[in-house]
Structure formats: C-alpha cells, structure tokens
Amino acid sequence: MTDRYDTGMAVRRKVLGDAHVDRAEATKSDFDAPFQTLITEGAWGTVWASEAIPLRERSMLTLALLAATGNFEEIPMHIRACARTGATRQDVQEAFQHVAIYAGVPRANHAIKLARQTWAEMDADD
Fold first, then answer.
1. How far apart are the C-alpha atoms of 20 and 97, rounded to whole Å?
2. Are both 58 and 48 inside the same structural domain?
3. Do 63 and 109 have their domain in common?
C-alpha cells in the first residue's frame, strides 16, 4: 500500500472510529476493494488529511454537501463522526440552515430528521 493509503486509513479511523472501519474492512470484497482503496487514498488520505481545514469544519462541510446533493445515506455516519471531530450539534444545525437557504428546505429538513434520529440512537447507547 502507499503512504497516502496509510495516512488515509489513519485519518479514516480517527474520524469514523475503529469499529466502523473494521466492519467496512471485514465486508470488503475483490469487487469493491479498488473502490475502497480509492476512497481511502483520495477522500481520507488527501482531502480529510489536509491540515488546511480542521476536522470540525470538514465535518460541517461534508454534512452540508451530503444534504445539499441529496446523498442522505452517509449523513448518519458523518453525524456519528462529529463526536470525534468536535463538530457540535449546534454546528450541524448551522450547516443545515445553510443547506436550507442555498439548496432547499426539503433537503435540509430530511438531513435534520436523520441527524435527530442518529443523535437519539447515540444518546440511547450512552
């Protein structure tokens, strides 16, 4: 593996947690292994690993972009990651308000619903 892969895996574990990454790695197949390498090197080893923007702000950007583009499936995962990146519930609410203004109220509303459900699950686990 490359240095970028190793860096990406370290950042991925820092943001998403060992349990999440271990589950993803355990289900990796020959078919999706190249994709997993791509996102580990590109997303985690390049974008998330950059020190130009702190992890807290990256969480807020990621959540806003996911909501704005209607890619809701990954919102719960990134809500959970906020506990590791330092993005607060208020930070997330502010990001979703931007989504409402710039990308549409229905998308922000659905993202808020997912965030509330995820926080309720997290609170129940504590």
1. 28
2. no
3. yes
Query: Could you read off the pLDDT tens digit of each residue along the chain, which spans 126 residues?
Result: 789 999 999 999 999 999 999 999 999 999 999 999 999 999 999 999 999 999 999 999 999 999 999 999 999 999 999 999 999 999 999 999 999 999 999 999 999 999 999 999 999 997
Please give the Cα distance from 4 to 25 (Å, whole number): 17
Could you tell me if 87 and 59 are in contact, meaning their C-beta atoms sit under 8 angstroms apart?
A: yes
HSE (side-chain half, CA atoms, 13 Å) at 126: 8
CB 42 within 8 A of CB 86: no
107, 68 in Cβ contact below 8 A?
yes
Report the distance separating Cα 23 and Cα 94, nearest Å. Answer: 31
Report how many domains make up the chain. Answer: 2
> Which one-letter DSSP state was computed for residue 73?
G
Per-residue tokens: 44: 């985690």
pTM above 0.90, yes or no: yes
